[in-house]
Amino acid sequence: MTSAVSSGESITLKIDDKDISCRSGETILAVARENNIDIPTLCFMEGLSVWGGCRLCLVEVAGSPKLQAACATVCTEGMNVVTASPRLKEYRKMIVEMLFAERNHVCSVCVSNGHCELQDMAVKLEIDHVRFPYRYPHLQVDNSHDRARMDHNRCILCTRCVRVCAEIEGAHTKDVKGRGVLAAIIHDLDQPWGESETCTSCGKCVNVCPTGALTHRGTAVGEMQKKTDFLPYLTLMRRTES
Amino acid sequence: MKPEELTSMMEKARADMQAFDHHINVCTESGCISLQSDLLLKTLGDEVKHRGLTEKVCVKGVGCMGLCCNGPLVKANTTLYQNVKSEHAPAIVDSLSSQPVQELLCDTQQPFFTRQKLIVRENSGRVDPESLIDCIAHGAYQALLKVLTSMTPQQVIQEIADSGLRGRGGAGFPTGLKWATVAKAPGTRKYVICNGDEGDPGAFMDRSMMEGDPHRVLEGMAIAAYAVGAQQGVIYVRAEYPLAVKRLTKAINMAHRHDLIGHNIFGTKFDFNVEIRLGAGAFVCGEETALIASVEGKRGLPRPRPPYPANSGLFGCPTLINNVETYANIAPIINNGAASFAQIGTEKSKGTKIFALTGKIKNTGLIEVPMGIRLKDIIYDIAGGIPDGRAFKAVQTGGPSGGCIPADMLDITVDYESLTKAGSIMGSGGMIVMDETSNMVDVARFFMEFCMTESCGKCVPCRVGTYEMHELLDRIYEKRGTLDDLQLLKDLCGMVKQTSLCGLGQSAPNPVLSTLRYFEHEYLDLINQAQASEADRNAAAKGESIKLEVLS
Ligand SMILES: Cc1cc2nc3c(=O)[nH]c(=O)nc-3n(C[C@H](O)[C@H](O)[C@H](O)COP(=O)(O)O)c2cc1C
Ligand code: SF4
Ligand code: SF4
After folding, report:
1. What pLDDT digit, counting tens, does each position of B130-177 carry?
2. From A91's CA, which of B60, B154, B280, B444 has a CA 20 to 30 Å away?
3. Mutate to test the interface with A, among B452, B463, B507 (most CBs of A within 10 A)
């Protein structure tokens, strides 16, 4: 299964000057959250495999010249972690600004307005403007599925939908094509979603999508709310069954 | 094959070789083939046949002799000829027993040849890469024999560690240490991978190694496999290197047929098999974790490290991954001993390094030089300086991950540390020389465009950051930039370097940073020009409106 079952050996470490103990095998992100230390994430989702792509959870680890992704770094004995230095805060802001500059995020006409993780992140990181040139790419809306809609203008390529579809639903309908800023989510062999032969129309991808990229059909501005509680439940059930 | 057989095969092949009165070697690597050296080889062969000299003259295709700009190169006994065409074949055959063909002569006493030190490439240009027998005649598989019959894996690792060899794929990680880590990693199934992806623009060292002496690469891999306890090897080559693929495939098949790879090599318990995997030409697939994903049949995306491939690599097994040139260094180290290798180079950078010289330089081609040589000696002595009476401006080492070194820094020595200190990196060995006609903002923009289109798109800082940096560079170069744009560019450089997931993003800002370090005035000039023309436009617009007022 996805999350490594920790071996139980006890470890002590410091996160933001707080003495913390955990079990070996646990990630910095998991331990921090257990201890009410907030590290921002967008691509991470409990129950799915670790991706490490959004880079918002980067933290400083004393003695390591490189910043470490909290979602992918396992705690070790005596580790000293800083989660919110001025430098980290600045980098996080820049990353979220870049996401806004990359595609066409127009909150005022978005079905997810008010229920969007990207928008919430901008608020949380106190972003007041975007300093980078906007790309304004011409992107499609895939309206071919009878229950859901994919708007590439609002996609941040976190690949949560790809992972939930492959790892939880087992359909692997979705994947990524292309490189760099031209990368995009596709269905099967880059067909319209509605023509996909593998999609079971389970709707899991819609619910894990952090933005208004994947939504239910028929929703209008601000009406789309995601339900993600199925995921911890499914993961737990499968773990106890196996 | 039994140990004695290799020796007897070598002796017989050498005797056969000596039975010829004359030898004609024709370069048949991609560079010279693009100038029809394959046709030349055939014409020379036919000429010899027509004159009934097949018993006396041996004509064969060989690997690169280095001076690619003057190709096709032909060596007739000890005489080197350049720019040879098929119509020269009769003259060359005539010359074997008389005077050399004057107009084709290539001076082998010029610094390009005399200042090189050939260890890795010692057999390149001497052996026929498609003939196992010829390679064996030149000593191939002797090191493997020595290792399997007289050394323990630990001794092999110690020997490599003592040599001071560092990875030639870019980062310069100590090879002995890497081997020891894989050897120690728990697991019964282990892999060795040869990284032949070579995606840097302007680099062709590894291609030449694979095309010119493939058995040396195989031998290095087999020794590594014995040392770390692996039975399976994978060579990852980009599909754009069809000749390398063809020769490697042939080499593997021949080595198999003679039991130099396969089961119970030299009658020992050591088994080793190799297969080739083709990459579809993505720069990021040279990054080790992306390469492994690609070999596994997945999309070639990097993943966070640790775990390092040494502990969890191909199919989750401990995996040794080294560069082509790193493997090609192994046989000479084993044959001549770690000490003789460690004598060459500087304190921390041992041995020799192959460089691919390209750009605005007289002698373009491949060179192998001892570490610690001055950059100046490479540029002016070996490479012959800048053509057309122009002035040298900068040399880019390390490709899109490296940096530009300006004229007043040419006294630095070529080793991992001093190149890093100068704001560049050793990289895999590409050297692109620029003269005074190059604009450094344009150079930075070129490399950023490369990184932007090669970014895999997995992580935000590299995916969007390279796009934004390219956009800003474009603005500045096209005289639309402002000082704010320059500051934003600098901020982005720092951020993308620190936050990207893999080496591609982490090093993508390097060409910008190094050109800013040495040539910031070129950025500022362009920005000033932009401001000046903006002021002009405003004045013109104002003039226009005044005129209109007068008219009305
Ligand atoms: C974007 C990127 C591209 C790379 N391309 C290559 C390559 O083409 N060939 C190579 O040998 N190493 C390449 N590397 C380095 C490899 O990840 C790895 O470090 C190397 O193969 C290890 O071999 P070495 O220890 O013998 O140098 C690349 C690294 C990055 C980050
Ligand atoms: S609806 Fe279900 S099966 Fe279809 S793409 Fe989404 S997650 Fe995959
Ligand atoms: S740094 Fe660039 S190439 Fe590397 S994982 Fe991130 S997006 Fe991909």
Report:
1. 999 999 999 999 999 999 999 999 999 999 999 999 999 988 999 999
2. B444
3. B463
What residues contact residue B169 under an 8 Å CB cut-off, 6+ apart? B195, B286, B322, B323, B325, B326, B428
Span from the CA of A169 to the centroid of ligand 2 (angstroms): 7
Residues near A109 by Cβ (< 8 Å), separated by ≥ 6?
A221
Give the number of other CB atoms < 10 A from CB of residue A73. 23
Q: Do B498 and A183 touch (CB under 8 A)?
A: no
Nearest chain B Cα distance for residue A146, angstroms: 29
Domain enclosing residue B173, as ranges: 139-342
Q: Which residue segment(s) compose the domain that A41 sits in?
A: 10-84
**CB proximity under 8 Å: A 106-165 to B:** 131-133, 135, 156-157
CA distances from B337 to A189, B136, B157, B162, B164 (A): 54, 20, 12, 9, 12
3-state secondary structure of B430: strand
Residue B24 lies in a domain: yes
Kindly report the pTM of this predicted structure. Answer: 0.94
- The verdict on A137 and A222 lying in the same domain is yes
Q: What is the ipTM of this complex?
A: 0.94
Tens digit of each residue's pLDDT (9 = 90 or more) over A32-52: 999 999 999 999 999 999 999
Closest CA to B357 of B169, B167, B204, B515: B204
- Which chain B residues are within 8 Å of A54, Cβ to Cβ? 459-460
Cα–Cα dist B484/B472, whole Å: 10
